[in-house]
Amino acid sequence: HLYTKIRVLGLGKEVVVSRNFSVNSVAAVWQTFVPLLIGGTIAVHNHDTVLDGYKLFTEAEKLGVNIISMVPSQLSSFIGQLEAGRDRLLLNSLKMLVLTGEKTEPGLVKRFYKFYHIQLWNAYGQSECSDDTLHYKIKRDCDLEVIPIGKPSDNTCVYIMDKNLNIQPVGVEGEICISGDGVALGYLH
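The structure assignment produced for this chain is given below.
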């Protein structure tokens, strides 16, 4: 999982990662250990800062953060403040924003890209896996009705299955099932 984050997001030793998720959250694992693996920096924020997207982005800029991961609803709240007239922050150090934990809506992507040219990623993962198991780079000119959840992490397979655990044909709805090294031991049954 950690090495997939490094490879997919193109992270190197110059990275400064915002550790804004609670240590009780699985997302805090990559936010903590990816920078340590590659010689990067971790910017840890206090609870009050994390709860307010405007404060979080302000502090992240002061600390030179390059990458932040957050839930789409928090980004929506931040963008809502800008739309309501709050001063637009200059986010010169921020290079990537990874949305995770909730469905990313196309409308939010369009709202964000009206203000910033920062690369957006949609990340998806189930609780039985090691956080984000799939990643999708959202293009600025994205005109999709649904934002894809992306391609699987290294050493991970994703299947779309019916209620009897039969693999569905391409384009047919079903349940997402994941196998591979990132699935928690003993999760089956």
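Interim note for the steering committee: The CA atoms of residues 18 and 43 lie 5 Å apart. The two ends are 23 Å apart (CA to CA).
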